[in-house]
Amino acid sequence: MCPDCHSLEKSTQTLSGKGKVLSWVRQVRPASFGFKESPIVILVELEEGLRMVSNLAGDEPPEIGDAVTVDFEKTSGGKAVPVFKKAGA
Q1: What would the pLDDT profile of 35-75 be if each residue is shown by its tens digit?
Q2: What CA–CA distances, in Å, run from 45 to 32, 36, 52, 63, 68?
Q3: I need a labelling partner for 78 at 20 to 30 A (CA). Which of 5, 34, 59, 72 fits?
Q4: What percent of the chain has pLDDT over 90?
């Protein structure tokens, strides 16, 4: 829903897939089902201003402000979900 006009109309837009890390967390408990280790969950601000929560690929925690780019990981159901990796990695 649009936060300004409360419209429910949808449209699609191509995004750059580039952004920066605003915040991150890694749970300290046994890994979630389907993960070898607990994933690093990040809040990303894309170049276009959109913010989204996703996982960071890899085991190295990010720094706030790190540049990231989108990648896609296959799910057990044969679909793909967006995840991010550090830019240049």
Answers
A1: 677 889 999 999 999 999 999 998 899 999 999 999 999 98
A2: 25, 27, 7, 14, 10
A3: 59
A4: 64
Domain boundaries, the chain: 18-86
User: What sign does the CA torsion over 24, 70, 8, 75 have?
Assistant: negative
- C-alpha–C-alpha distance, residues 69 and 58, integer Å: 13
Structure tokens at 83: 């995840």
Whole-number pLDDT of residue 77: 87
CATH fold, domain 18-86, is: OB fold (Dihydrolipoamide Acetyltransferase, E2P) (2.40.50)
CB 81 within 8 A of CB 73: yes
